[in-house]
Amino acid sequence: MAEAARYYEERQDGLGALFLSRIQTALRELCERPSACLAVQGPIRRKLARQFPYAVLFREDEEEIVVIAVAHLRRRPGYWIPRTRTGN
Question: Which residues pair with 58 in a beta bridge?
């Protein structure tokens, strides 16, 4: 996420901050209604970030929401899958 924010900021002043803001909004929204997010693999769901080709991938445990990745939707698809195994 930080790398993506730096990338966008290098392209245009303020774009990195906008990216982080959109990720923060996605996090807030998924915390409010996690079950409204698209299930992508088993218990893993995703919440899209507005204006950017990124999604927050997460799972809902009994007492918490666990963010697996903030992933680009077209680069390295599935790189986050090993993180979904128990203990990660």
Answer: 45, 67
Q: Tell me which residue has tokens 């990720």.
A: 23
Question: What residue segments make up the domains of the chain, in order of their start?
Answer: 2-84
The CA distance from 29 to 59, in Å, is: 14
Q: How far is CA 82 from the centre of its chain?
A: 16
Structure tokens belonging to residue 85: 């195994």
Please indicate, yes or no, whether the overall pTM of this predicted structure exceeds 0.90. no
Pick one of 2.60.200, 3.30.420, 3.40.50, 3.30.2310 as the CATH number of 2-84: 3.30.2310
| pLDDT tens digit sequence for 8-49 | 999 999 999 999 999 999 999 999 999 999 999 889 999 999
Burial of 78 (0-12, 13-18, 19+ CB in 10 A): exposed
